[in-house]
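Table S4 entry, Preprotein translocase subunit SecG.
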Amino acid sequence: MSSGSNSGGLMSSAGLVRYFDAQDRNAITMDPKTVLAFCVLFGVFVQILSLTVA
């Protein structure tokens, strides 16, 4: 590989990997089961609304 080509790709992405692997202590954490239950209930709610409006 010549020195003129883009040889810094792996080195430049190392900072992004380190950034995305870090855990933020102030982030909102939710149980995945809670999110799934909310989505199912929201879907049922939308289906009930579509039956009553139509």
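Residues 30 and 36 are 11 Å apart (CA to CA).
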